[in-house]
Amino acid sequence: EEDIAYLLDSARAVFPEIELGFEDVISSFFGVRPLVLQSGKSLSSASRDFQFVSNRPKFISVIGGKYTTFRALSEKACFKVARILGIKGVRSLTKELPFIGGEIEDVDLYIEQHYELEASVYAVSKPVYVHLIRRYGSLYVDVLSVFLEREDYQESLPECSYFRGEVVYAIRKEFCLRVTDFMRRRTDLFF
User: What proportion of the chain, given as a percentage, has pLDDT over 90?
Assistant: First the structure.
């Protein structure tokens, strides 16, 4: 309840004309994450950095961390395990691996070099083409295939920069189940 009260207070500070209370909260969730104990600090101000602790030989515990550092955390954990086990020559397989859709290195150059040909094949306007590549990277063809199914999928949603086809794609390919899933987890529309 303390966290909910904090979020409601924050929302009321930004939107003072809206009356929000606990009864307006539809759902909530929380996760448990072991944080590094820091004397004199509250949990909310505790560092989200990670560290390794080894209380026994050949045993490592990871404390702290956050979603945005999971790749680096995993890499360092593997290096530590390799060192403990005496394995030499271990290297990272993920350090230079692009995120899904991140295979296009220079988006502007890609658009310049590919739009003419792809527009003749896919019948897509340049603004839609640019939007899809900037938003989905090398996955744009998957999203574009949805856009081409129906003409209205290339229409913008009201008062935003997203298209109807993006909602359809999110439902089919990204396990989007509710409007709030699309708005909160795939766009900045909620914020």
Answer: 41
